[in-house]
Amino acid sequence: MNFKIFENLADQIEDIPEGSIVSKTIENNDAYKTVIFGFDTGQELSEHQTPMHAMIYFVSGEMDLSLGGEASVAKPGTWVHMEPSLPHSVKAKEPAIMLLVMVK
Fold first, then answer.
1. How would you class 31 by CB atoms within 10 Å of its CB: exposed for 0-12, middle for 13-18, buried for 19 or more?
2. Distance between CA atoms of 4 and 53, rounded to whole angstroms?
């Protein structure tokens, strides 16, 4: 099979326990790694960097987003591309799901 399809990405996160972040790798190959995250309200990934290009797609919920020190709010449908070494962070304003793709 030369394709993979998810009719509803949010279904990949079955449950987000209270006060938690859950993640699931849905693809990992020589070219990229794709991870889906579920955040409970108030949960965050504090500021960090990655040595590779990365893209985030916000599937559900609202999140505070910081990219290189610029703050914004990510809503369902928001898509972000980040250059390597860009400082970034996310914090869930409500239960939220996001998809991360890291290009190797």
1. exposed
2. 22
